[in-house]
Design goal:
With 1241 residues, the protein is α/β, with parallel strands linked by helices. The chain has 3 domains: 348 residues, Glucose Oxidase, domain 3; 308 residues, 3-Layer(bba) Sandwich (FAD/NAD(P)-binding domain); 226 residues, Glucose Oxidase, domain 3 (2-Layer Sandwich). Helices cover 29% and strands 19% of the residues. It is built from 35 helices and 49 strands. The strands form 15 sheets. Strands 32, 33, 41, 42, 43, 44, 47 and 48 form an 8-stranded mixed β-sheet that branches. Strands 1, 2, 11, 12, 13, 14 and 24 form a 7-stranded mixed β-sheet that branches. The two termini are 60 Å apart. 58% of the residues are buried.
Length: 1241
């Protein structure tokens, strides 16, 4: 007897064994692993990898099956049963029906709660199933995998038979619905219709474990010996040290073959299935003392549970005659090789067609209605009450269409058929399987499946027959019954199958069955019910005293170094085809063994991390598993626990939430947004609508009125902010400008925020964008979600502006990219956040959130306003919100609390975020006391540091040939409609425009600086001089009048917009009520409080006017929009005037003119809609609110992620900075929570 030694030996090479062995061998290349499989290899053999071959394989003598003869029991009138099992590398996965069906969560939960197997609940196993698969129909679904080895798809050769059954079912059974996924572990999958399969949708190949864990790896440390049947485990005392096997090819042919012993230094793993594993144990001396003694086997361990607890599903295929137009697989299943050759050729050529299909295109898991339960009484009463009633996810039957006759009866003529299959999901009857010889591994087994021994199983099948028959007779392809496949009803029965030859109407009455008819159905089932090929449970993972064979670590009781890893370990049945459970067992076994042997590898940590994340995420307030709840796209008050809650759904929030959800679809994320959804609304996605939206009554803006300002001559500026999913990105001007590199560098060097310098932020901004024009520098992105473009047709006003700038402003140059971070003082085109292909706005809601419909765990609750953060001590544990529609109208609305198990992120913007913090007890002591709020953290910086840009749109009258957007911005609905229609047609035209095509970021020259002295001296020396990339002013032509004033006649206008890049003045915003989120804020904008800001605007006015009056489309000044210069001033404006030449001298302004300009700015300056800074990322002692990780000082589990965190201003429109913050927040949160897949570039 020869011997060889391995670290681990697998006795059996079935589905689970291939997974476990493959994972371990890949994890540790030094581990010597041997798989001994009684059957042959299956690598690249057509009858394995072509899915449609599975049924034909049963009809041809092949060594890839073992057939087990079961004794007849009382439930089946003493009939013998033939139960096949897979006998090849990959086991059942290499020959099964490729049905993708996963158990319900309570099936696995029972393993833990009923049988005490810690670590085997649905919360532990679902992540492992995800890890194993790539769910091709929806790879980002939270309960499915996206990168696993096994590919799942819907059939490419989909049959109309399945579609028809689903259509009929949902039409006549009102409690049912369709689903794209009845395997998502939710209640939504109960009484729902839809089927997928273990087939790669790209190649058409079967997804078996041999090919996807073994053959594709070519692992030198994993040895496979096929056609080697393990006879027994070798023990030293009770320690397993190896196995003995025979040459199966010789032994099966009754030839003499010498047993071969191989040693295992670390572990023996039995993986020979529900028949093979208990047989090996018993031949090895592990089992019932009575049996072992009877067979002359020396007992090693007294374990009477071995071979008991046999389970299967009770299967029926009821056949029907099909019409010619029905797409069936009869020829593929029962045809000759010549007849199936076209299907095989198509599969070989393109991986498509009939041979990629299993014929099962529709199905459901069904529970009885209250009325049906009465019919099932009394036989089913006890089973329902004790097993089903308190577990609403457990189906009683499983139904599926089969687009073929499924049977082996040669009397059935060839033709077109369809069948409706049904099986009991959790039969009460169980059986046994034992050896009959201690030495002959080929002796027949003592096998009693005991089908239908319990009458509860019989009445379930009776109910199922009636249900499926009602479906079939209404299907348009129905042409009668294949009578030999149905009950023999009494003569004259209304249920007789010889009457109907065509479908009945959907509303036809159901067949009424008599007691005699029921008896006929019962007899039919006793005579014809068969295996579902789902043999499990014969080495159950139960307590030893309850008949268990293995513990929760898969160790065989009473032995050492011996485990079992296959479906024989299942302690109770599962409501599904058993392949998914074999996968779960294989993946779980790999982790258990790796942990015990100290193997460290990504697959082990990944699996464990998946489990930990799922456990942390998944416990609801009532303690139940998430799998018991339905996923809802829109969150409701009943959804009470999330991993992360975003209080506000603005630009940054959508990015951070979207990135995290995409990286870990199992993460439960809630966005609570005060405003409405914007999805596919033309007011939002059509770029040019932004202007008119500001002047129409809409709920997509919140208007904040500032306190009267002395600097503004007593005016109270009104500042709008975006109030919709996507925040400002859904309503802004879509201007693409980016901050200076030194802006972000200041955040790190000046304020100590490590990781926020331009070298860290630029890669994130690149990652976020696709810069469609292309770029010669490396600061732009090429594959991000947000599309950036230039206007396809530069309006002639913009062309004119650039031409005049080239001829008039000799101090400044031109660039093809005004947004490359490191320079200013250059004219050029300005890009837009608009997709140049579709003409659509590039907002964060559509590009990070709405495009994740498949992710049911990313939920958005719109029109709900967060009032405060909920704390336990100083730990943020949730938020309280109110119905905003009711609250804004002054109605009474009850607050709702939702909990966050891991993190709360405040992201309500520069107004909303500090208000939420203050109402939550975080802020200045004086503010909180005044508003009756109990202080949690003394943080006086909350609400301070308000910043904006000071903007002026200087208007000019345009010539008739100027291209302007006035008709679009200020026209009636009828006038605007042609532009809208063009956009709908091709995404082009003025509706895809924002009216801003070019501009410049400008700094004053020495002469201009002298004119701005002394007010601007300190600001220049301390802030601008050391940072040559910082613009003092940004200005740009705007191809329209930027106001709505009925005193201004309709016509053509253009404006020069200018705003100060870094105003010195700052303001504040605080709450005025500790309980009412609708109380007006104590808001002081601070505009022009510092005189330095005023002289900047004075300089900007002069520069803008000089350039505008030289443009050929200039036809005069719109007087109402300019300063009121004294009569006789050389600076006086005129409504009608010809353009000046490029060489004409500049206007000379007197001191009185400067005063008039200053007065004008005090009267006219407004917000640029760029509110930032009120929860500043600064040191706490410097007025900071959050640290560099966005954590709110003094509390845990609370971050802020929006533009309120900016410690200082940025020389640009703020949307780009909001993007940077959103992307950075996603990276930080992912790092903090251990989420993989959120990268820094």
């Amino acid at each position: 007897m020869s011997e060889e030694t391995y670290d681990i030996i697998f006795a059996g090479g079935g589905a689970s064994a291939c997974i476990t062995a493959g994972r371990l061998a890949e994890a540790d290349p030094n581990l010597k692993i041997l798989i001994l499989e009684a059957g042959p290899h299956s690598e690249d053999l057509f009858y394995h990898v072509q899915p449609g071959r599975y049924f034909g394989n049963l009809l041809v003598p092949r060594e890839i099956f073992s057939f087990h003869f079961g004794k007849g029991g009382k439930g089946t009138n003493g009939r013998m049963h033939l139960v096949p099992t897979g006998r090849a590398l990959g086991g059942g996965s290499a020959i099964n029906f490729v049905m993708y069906m996963r158990p319900v969560p309570s099936d696995y939960d029972d393993w833990e709660t009923v049988y005490g197997n810690k670590g085997w609940s649905s919360r532990e196993l679902i992540p492992l199933l995800k890890k194993a698969e790539t769910y091709q129909p929806n790879p980002n679904h939270p309960s499915h995998g996206s990168t696993g080895p096994l590919k799942i798809s819907f059939a490419s050769g989909h049959s109309n038979v399945g579609d028809e059954m689903v259509a009929v079912a949902t039409a006549i059974e009102k409690d049912h619905h369709t689903t794209n996924d009845h395997n998502d572990f939710t209640l939504e999958s109960i009484n729902a219709w839809g089927v997928s399969q273990y087939v790669d949708g790209n190649t058409g190949k079967r997804s078996d474990t041999a090919h996807h864990y073994i053959y594709n790896k070519k692992l030198p440390n994993l040895k496979i010996i096929t056609r080697a049947k393990v006879t027994k485990v070798l023990f030293e005392g009770t320690k397993a040290v190896g196995v003995e096997y025979l040459n199966d090819e010789v032994a099966r042919g009754k030839g003499a073959t010498e047993p071969v012993a191989v040693k295992a230094s670390k572990l023996v793993v039995l993986a020979a299935g529900a028949f093979g594993s208990p047989a090996i144990l018993e031949r090895s001396g592990v089992g019932s003392p009575e049996l072992l003694k009877k067979l002359g086997i020396k007992q090693v361990v007294d374990l009477p549970g071995v071979g008991e607890n046999y389970m299967d599903h009770n299967m029926m295929f009821t056949p029907y005659l099909a019409s010619e137009e029905a797409e069936t697989m009869d020829l593929a299943f029962r045809g000759s090789e010549e007849e199936v050759k076209p299907y095989a050729d198509q599969w070989v050529k393109e991986g498509k067609g009939v041979f990629t299909n299993n014929g099962v295109d529709g199905g459901a898991r069904i529970r009885p209605t209250e009325e049906e339960l009465k019919i099932l009484s009394p036989e089913f009463d006890e089973r329902w009450k004790t097993y089903y009633a308190d577990k609403p996810d457990k189906p009683v039957i499983v139904i599926a269409t089969m687009a073929a006759y499924v049977g082996l009866n040669p009397a059935v003529p060839r033709g077109k058929y369809f069948s409706i299959a049904y099986f009991t999901a959790h039969p009460e009857s169980t059986g046994h399987v034992h050896i009959t010889s201690g030495t002959d591994a080929y002796a027949p087994l003592d096998f009693g499946p005991n089908y239908l021994d319990k009458t509860s199983d019989l009445v379930v099948l009776r109910w199922a027959y009636k249900r499926v028959r009602e479906l079939a007779r209404r299907m348009k392809f129905f042409r009668g019954y294949l009578e030999l496949g149905h009950p023999q009803f009494p003569s004259g029965s209304a249920a007789a199958t010889d009457k109907e030859k065509a479908p009945v109407p959907l509303d036809a009455p159901k067949i009424v069955y008599t007691k005699e008819d029921d008896d006929a159905i019962d007899e039919y089932h006793r005579q014809t019910v068969e295996t579902c090929w789902h043999s499990i449970g014969t080495c159950p993972m139960k307590p030893r005293e309850q008949g268990g064979v293995v513990d929760s670590k898969l160790n065989v009781y009473g032995t050492q170094n011996l485990k079992i890893a296959d479906c024989s370990i299942t302690p109770s049945n599962v409501a599904a085809n058993t392949y998914s459970t074999a996968i779960a067992v294989g993946e779980k076994a790999a982790i258990i063994i790796a942990e015990e042997l100290g193997i460290k590898d990504a697959f082990v940590s990944h699996g464990r991390k998946e489990v930990e994340l799922y456990l942390a995420r998944d416990t609801l307030q009532d303690g139940t598993s998430h799998g018991r709840k339905s996923y809802l796209r829109m969150a409701t008050a009943q959804d009470t626990v999330y991993d992360i809650i975003f209080a506000g759904g603005g630009a940054s929030a959508c990015i951070a939430a979207g990135r995290l959800a995409a990286a870990d679809p199992s993460l439960k994320i809630l966005i609570v947004e005060a405003g409405p959804h914007t999805r596919e609304l033309q007011d939002h996605i059509q770029p040019a609508r932004y202007f008119s939206n500001l002047f129409l009554p809409k709920e997509t803006f919140t208007f904040h009125k500032s306190q009267p300002s002395q600097a503004l001559l007593g005016r109270s500026p009104v500042v709008p902010s975006g109030r919709a999913v996507g925040g400002g990105s859904s309503v802004n001007f879509v201007v693409y400008t980016r901050a200076a590199a030194s802006d972000y560098d200041d955040w790190e060097t000046k304020y100590g925020n490590k990781g926020w310098s331009s070298k860290h932020i630029i890669p994130l901004l690149k990652k976020a964008e696709t810069f469609q024009p292309g770029s010669k520098n490396d600061t732009h992105g090429a594959s991000g979600p947000l599309k950036i473009s230039y206007a396809p047709d530069l309006v002639n006003v913009a062309e004119d502006f650039l031409e005049v700038a080239a001829g008039f402003d000799k101090e400044r140059s031109f660039t093809d990219d005004t947004n490359q971070f490191f320079e200013c003082e250059k004219y050029g085109r300005w890009a837009r956040y608009i997709d140049g292909v579709t003409g659509r706005r590039s907002d964060t809601a559509h590009h990070y959130v709405y495009n994740q419909d498949h992710n049911s765990n990313l939920k958005v609750l719109d029109r709900h306003r967060v009032v405060r953060v909920i704390f336990e001590g100083n730990q943020a544990v949730g938020v309280e919100y109110v119905n905003d529609l009711v609250g804004r109208s002054g109605g009474v609305t009850e607050p709702i609390v939702v909990k966050a198990s891991r993190l709360v992120v405040v992201s309500a913007g520069a107004f909303g975020s500090p208000a939420i913090l203050e109402r939550s007890g975080i802020g200045a002591k004086a503010v909180l006391e005044k508003n009756g709020v109990k202080q949690i953290v003394d943080l006086p910086g909350v609400g301070e540091n308000y910043m904006d840009h000071n903007v002026i749109f200087l208007p000019f009258v345009a010539t008739p040939d100027a291209d302007t957007l006035d008709a679009l911005f200020q026209g009636t609905r009828e006038e605007v409609e042609p532009y809208a229609q063009q956009w709908l047609k091709d995404g082009k035209g003025l509706m895809s425009h924002n009216g801003i095509d070019c501009g410049v970021k400008m700094r004053p020259n020495a002469e201009e600086l002298a004119a701005m002295s002394p007010e601007f001296d300190h600001r220049w020396k301390t802030y601008f001089a050391p940072a040559p990339d910082k613009p003092v002013m940004l200005y740009l032509p705007f191809a329209a009048l930027a106001t709505v004033n009925p005193a201004i006649p309709k016509g053509k206008y253009f404006s020069i917009a200018y705003f100060s890049g870094y105003p010195v003045s700052v303001g504040r915003v605080h709450i005025t009520s500790g309980t009412n989120p609708y109380s007006p804020s104590d808001f002081h904008a601070g505009f022009l409080d510092d005189p330095a800001d005023l002289v900047i605007l004075r300089w900007a006015y002069k520069k803008s006017r000089e350039l505008a009056r030289r443009m050929k489309y200039y036809s005069g000044d719109l007087v109402i929009g300019h300063p009121k210069f004294k009569e006789g001033s050389k600076a006086a404006v005129q409504q009608k005037r010809n353009p000046a030449s490029l060489t004409d001298p500049e206007i000379v302004y007197t001191k009185e003119d400067d005063d008039a300009i200053d007065q004008y700015h005090r009267e006219k300056v407004e917000t640029t809609w760029h509110s930032i800074g009120t929860c500043a990322m600064k040191p706490r002692e410097a007025g900071g609110v959050v640290d560099e990780r966005l954590n709110v000082y003094g509390v845990q589990g609370l971050k802020v992620a929006d533009c309120s965190i900016t410690p200082d201003n940025v020389g640009a429109n703020t949307y780009n900075t909001a993007i940077a913050i959103g992307e950075k927040a996603a990276v930080i949160i992912a790092e903090d929570l251990g989420i993989k897949g959120v990268t820094t570039e």
